[in-house]
Amino acid sequence: MFPVNSTSVETARIARAIRCIARHNVARLITSAGVYNCKRTVGTTLYSAHAFGDAVDLMNGGPTDEREAIARAVIRDATKRTLRNRGRRTEVVYVIWNDRQWIRGHGESAYSGVAHTNHVHVGCSFSTRAVPACDGGHNYAVRYAHRA
Asked: Where are the domains of the chain?
């Protein structure tokens, strides 16, 4: 499996999404993954889902079609019940890659935010006004994942 860089703060639902994508053939295209980062969404005052351990960046510096394949696999896990994801859908609510985005319940559309040209961003929640533990708030949704 690709290495997951985190400070051990990640929600159970993002950990499950990572486990599911690791079972796909496209996992070989992912060089690493980053979960936790105490930051605000660029251009806003809202905290990123990364600040709550509820998003992951699946890094890939290869051609555009590789990120497309990774994104399609994540979307498939979020919308289909397959043997690979043990008969359940993941709780992914949005995916951003290249200049595209997919949002659960809304489908795919153009994305005009900050470029995602070297990774696929996968989120299980949207940016929020809540204050994460890293900035003095509370982060009730996290679990502490212990990776070998």
From this structure: 4-137
4-137: CATH number: 3.30.1380
pLDDT tens, residue by residue, 111-132: 988 888 999 999 998 767 777 8
Q: Could you tell me where the DSSP H helices lie in 28-132?
A: 64-79
Q: Residue 106 contacts by C-beta under 8 Å, 6 or more apart in sequence? A: none
Joined tokens for residue 81? 């019940």
Q: Structure tokens of 124?
A: 């299980």
Residue whose C-alpha is closest to residue 7's, from 101, 103, 147? 147
Cα angle value 74/82/2 (rounded, 5°)? 40
Residue labelled with tokens 């399609």: 72
**22 near 1, Cβ under 8 Å?**
yes
C-alpha distance from residue 7 to each of 30, 97, 114, 142 (Å): 19, 24, 24, 12
